[in-house]
Amino acid sequence: MKIAVIRFSALGDIASIRPIVNSMKFKPTLITSKVGYEYYKDEFDDFIILENKKILTVFKLVMQLRKRKFDVIFDFQCNDRSRLITKFSNSEVFDNKGLDIPSMTNFEIFYNIANRKDLLKNVDEQNSFKNSFDNYIVLNCGSSLQWQSKRLPEEKWLEIIELLAKKYNMPFYFVGDSSEVKYLESIAKKIDYEYKILAGKTSLTQLKEIVSNAYLTVTTDSAAMHISATLGRPTIGLFGATNWQRSKPYGKWSTVTYDKKYFKDNEPLSINTKEINPFMYENISIEDSLLELENFLKV
User: Fold this and answer.
1) How far apart are CA 184 and CA 148, in angstroms?
2) Of 79, 146, 222, 266, whose CB count within 10 A is highest?
3) Mean pLDDT of 206-214
4) Domain extents for the chain?
């Protein structure tokens, strides 16, 4: 059976579908962006790439789909563009129509879309916890410049690093993109522990390798969080400006935390915010998260 899946958008969104696409009974063609190709090129062989969002480019992609004659297309993007693409694909299409979206995590949405056709193996078995690791901890402290609201105050990262250093005594690998380097350097120069700043220095394939071999990843709501979790490594996602109920990382080896005093009702903001508000991180701590993941963090 000829299957295709659609997922464009940001790197974290693209990485988050990994447990589903790797659990399909037939290896799908990935209809994605250039970033999606770079991320999955070491795992998948067949891609259809949307080079840009221009109408002519979208039209050419539709014609490719019609020519390829896919039996089924799973639309994990579920926006106007992807619906337009699939509408004229001449394939059977499944998307999020009819799902109770507000009550579901992103992973649950993907799973329910894919499960509408009997084409999934056991997702947990296919994407199990990875037992092998190297002795370093990945820290993704930053965020894109557009989402600086996701960044914790530097003093909170220093508290987290101090706790991790005393508990595990491992080097720290700071990851991110080139726009985050100054922020990461400002944090790193204030610590007395071994570290590497890898932000802006790795390809996506190299980033996957680094994260997949980490003892633990502690991260903001970002691509690194989804990469780490879907590659089977213990992951702690730090939230405030965005919705942890919707965007929490995949797997029993992953968890989220947030400032329990600021969010007294344990409910996220109704709408994600780009407004920088350090007070929503003032009391955030990872101690409970480390206890929750204790069985996955035994050396």
Assistant:
1) 13
2) 222
3) 97
4) 3-126, 137-296
Cα–Cα distances in angstroms (integers) from residue 6 to residues 50, 60, 194, 206, 232, in the given order = 10, 15, 41, 24, 23
Distance between CA atoms of 11 and 114, rounded to whole angstroms? 20
Question: Alpha-carbon distance 19 to 298, whole Å?
Answer: 24
Q: What is the pTM of this model?
A: 0.94
Mean pLDDT of 122-138: 86
Q: 3-126 and 137-296: same fold?
A: yes
Residue-wise pLDDT tens digits, 234-280 = 999 999 999 999 999 999 999 999 999 999 999 999 999 999 999 99
Tokens linked to 24: 């399909």
pLDDT number for residue 299:
58
pLDDT-derived band at 154, boundaries 50, 70, 90: very high
Asked if 217 and 237 touch (Cβ cutoff 8 Å), the reply is no
CATH number of 3-126: 1.20.1250.20, 1.10.260.40, 3.90.1150.10, 3.40.50.2000?
3.40.50.2000
Task: Give the distance, in angstroms, between the CA of residue 284 and the centroid of all CA atoms in the same chain.
Answer: 21
CATH class for the domain made up of 137-296: alpha beta
C-beta of residue 201 within 8 angstroms of C-beta of residue 176: no
Which two three-digit tokens encode residue 2? 């000829």
